Amino acid sequence: MTSSNYHTPAPEAQSPGPNAPGRRQRSAEITKLEAELQHTYFPQKSDEDLLDRLNDLLDTFENYTDAVETMGLSHVGRLKEGRALAIVGASGVGKSRSLERAFESLGMNDRKSPFRIISIKAPSPCTLKQLGTSVLQALGYPVRRELRENVVWRKVRDQLKLHGIRFLHLDELQHLTQLENPSDSIKVCDTLKGLMQDEDWPVWLVLSGMPNLAAVIESDFQLRRRCTFVRLDLMTPCANDLQTVQRIIKNYCKKAKLEHQNLPMNELCSRLMHGAEGRTGYLIEIVQDALCKALKARRNMPLMGDFELTFEARTGCRPEHNVFAEDVEWQNIDVRNTLFPEDKEEDEVPQPKKRRLKIVRGA
Ligand SMILES: Nc1ncnc2c1ncn2[C@@H]1O[C@H](COP(=O)(O)OP(=O)(O)OP(=O)(O)O)[C@@H](O)[C@H]1O
Ligand SMILES: [Mg+2]
């Protein structure tokens, strides 16, 4: 074998990539519509609240900088500390996406903005030290050796100052394993307060996560006092929320250039609400995926079957547990337990009770 033969793979050994025989053919027009569907944001009332609270947070920062300029740091009084905004809600309600959008609209991702924000997703699971290390990495600081937790967070403060960054977003904070343990959770609260209270370089925080994050903040009055909140609630089958679901369906049908008149709208909205457990973002994803199925089938109207297939793919459920299937008592389907419901019943092992978080601090 010559060296050139050796280095040039035989044609049949080359990866066929997108042209592999099993790969479905994609049409450029449909691919474009799908992309359009998937990146279109559906504006909600909570977006206004979020923007409002974020604006308030930016105001407190500008008040601080104005006061430091006119009166000097030692005279700024209560303005001298950073503040925090906490966004709490169940998984899939849309916390990360709506924050991303709000940061964008406030220019907070702009490198030159005085409000520039660094956004970190807490690794899962993670310790306070690992979270600090993630912040350092996002700031481009090479973490080459094991550092102690307090050293990591001191470096975070130094690096934020070095890069002129005043805003830090910590997402998925519930991944901090230390939140489970009351004494460790105190350390988390102290670290967050330490960032806001730094004499030299106070930092303004945006904290987002699941509802247990709120429990931790509420457990520490000093932290709570420095926070404002936005709660993203689950939707419920009330008339208002069902109307929102209807607007979501119509909005995305329009985007995909699909008709919606043939859909049993009231029925579909109620089933969607149940299937998505009222999680707005997840519900939107189901609608988008179902409409993509109609597009791929080259129909100009979606069918209930598109939602049924989407739900099956999303949950792995059997037809009798599919909330979109005909002749099922969808209201009685436990949508969190559809993959192997019977096995679970048989194998059910009683789980140890979770310790309740009970911390009382600084009254
Ligand atoms: N208003 C919206 N318009 C369009 N898509 C949305 C909207 N809100 C959320 N989504 C989509 O829904 C999905 C879930 O949203 P997101 O990731 O923001 O939820 P989350 O609350 O952060 O969930 P988790 O706690 O699991 O991180 C994402 O695909 C997101 O793009
Ligand atoms: Mg998220």
UniProtKB/TrEMBL annotation:
Region (Disordered): 1-27, 343-363
Occurrences of domain ORC1/DEAH AAA+ ATPase (ranges): 81-215
Compositional bias annotation for Basic residues: 352-363
Source domain of life: Bacteria
Membrane-spanning segments: none
InterPro entries: AAA_22 (IPR049945), P-loop_NTPase (IPR027417)
Protein name: TniB protein
Taxonomic path: Bacteria, Pseudomonadati, Pseudomonadota, Alphaproteobacteria, Hyphomicrobiales
